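Appendix B. Extra example for self-study. Work through it before the problem class; the solution is given directly after the inputs so you can check yourself.
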Amino acid sequence: MSSAAVTSTIRSQVEAALALRSSGRLQEALEMLTTPGEYTSDFYTIRGEIQFALGRFQEAAGSYFTVVASEPDNTFAQYHLAICLHHLSRWAEAAQTFQRVLDLDPHRDSARLGLGACLLHLHRVEEALASFDCCWSDASRRRALFGKAVALQLLGRWDEAEAAYQRLLASDPKSEEVLSNLIAMSIETHDLEAARRFSTRLLDVSPRSTAALRGLAAVALEHQEYEDAVRYCGRIVEEAPDCVEAWRNLRFATGRVIALQRPELASTAGRK
Amino acid sequence: MVDLNARLVEPAQGSGETGLIERAVPFRFTVTWTFVSEAFETPKAAVAPLNDRMRGVITAPVDALPEPQTVLFKGSTNGDEPVLHDQKNPLPNPSVQWEMVVPKMVRAVRKATRASEISAPSSHSRPVFHQPSESPRRLGSEDLRAQPPAIALNTAAEHIPNFCSSSPPFLSRSRQTSLFIKLLLAATALAGLAVPVWRHFRSAPAAPEIQTTPRAGGWTRQLVTRVDPGFNRARELIVYRPSLKATDCRFEFNWRVDGPGVGWVFRAKDTANYYAMRIKVLRPGPSPTISVEHFTVYRGTEGAHAEKVLVVSISGPVLHIRTDLAGPSFALYIGGTAVEYWTDTRLTSGGLGFFEEWRQGADVEAVRMSFAPGTEIQREGLRLSMTAPSGGD
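Solution. Structure tokens for the complete assembly:
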């Protein structure tokens, strides 16, 4: 088959795949894209997109990698390869690829966010903070601020972290992840009042939030409020039956309640 | 996600004699940052643009690229899609071409001058003599105002008249013309002049048009400030002040494709509410790969950027960009080809202009704004190109 014929075949395959994808028939669209006789970036790019949409990140990464191997300056493919690697939890490779995107397009904040997220996973927190700090666009503002708050929290810069979280809460008072991280930070700093406050707030937003219930249970245990602890731990094991700590603390708190209410019964139960 | 070994909960040492669990265990609290990478979680966001990317190979027609500062919408290709033609004198209303009437007016009159010597001098006051051996002349602005060449040749073959007072053949012939013919001629000429003018003024209120450049007056530059520390104040809006109340309009300009990109705004009410578009060059060259993105800044919050990648074939260094705003619908044309269409209902009016980031301005020229009739435009100190037979200058 001549080169022109191959190109024409690929083109028609791509067009057909696009049509199928537009109608939501992703699997059929993917099947339409058989291996071409020669390299065309369009072919591999569209294939990567469909694989990505199908959640087949490993395959999508392969498709995008084919593109970037031939066209290292193809920022589109580089960026989506990085996202695939991020989905595959290959943080180091993803960070490297996001960095390549930024080398080509220094103003692409979405890549900067991705890089920052990968660096957090790699425990390169200072670098992550710097990456989030470099974000400048309004579109990335909240995400960058969130990443920055997380980095500050992990660095133990509590006050700055809380200030950043509070700014996020000001724009979105119902952000569960912000509240959850604030609970974790309050527990870590042993600020029980804050932990209770944020947990209550999170529970209002999300009544089945185990993070909120854990926070309240922890505070109740710390304050020796065992009845409350039983209540919260009970709800935790309902929501998350595999939470070993909750089971254990439920048993502990229950024992305490029994011991306080009926010391003789507790003592009997203990002998058994 | 990071597990924190919370120091909390080692309270209330249990009494050994109870036999129950003697101490609580600390809960695990995790720090998460899924929000940061939430944008990666939606495959559709990545899929959508490529749909157009694959189909969006634009071949900008050479003649669709206007000369800077000489663009005008005229005619149509399919009844809907206006095309650009070179023309120095903008005629916003194409129907007002009174030059076309003149040849019809005089067809009945036979002319002594040989037809082959004259070519359609309908809008000129003196005849233009043909050079028989000359190849067809290149169309210039004056030609466009006159008849098309084909019509000119045909008309010439039918003895095109000439109103030139200094043309001896015409004068000698006119002496032989009867008074009735003269009167008829004069009446027809008057009608030829009056009808287009009447049609022009009878029509709906003229749509104001503005031609300017970013270096001219009327532009206001404003920094987009942010309250969060750590973010650079990198964006500036450069809005054309007279357009601040614009609603439906057309915004077009020529962009020299040699910089990092060009960004423009419309329906800009203030620095916290505007629509923005940006074209970036991803790969330069004769067929540059560009990215086209649009986003909305509403109540200070910048929404998601919709982006697509296109390969554009251009014949010169200048790319003609056009944005049509009609109610909640926006359409982008590059080199006369529609490349993007979307809708948004949040902002209904506002100014037109550009935005710069990191103080990287684009090389933009021949900015043209055409507004819907009735649009309130501040006219002081501006050159407005209203529909007028003689052009906008």
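Self-check: Chain A has a mean pLDDT of 88. If your reasoning did not lead you there, revisit section 3.
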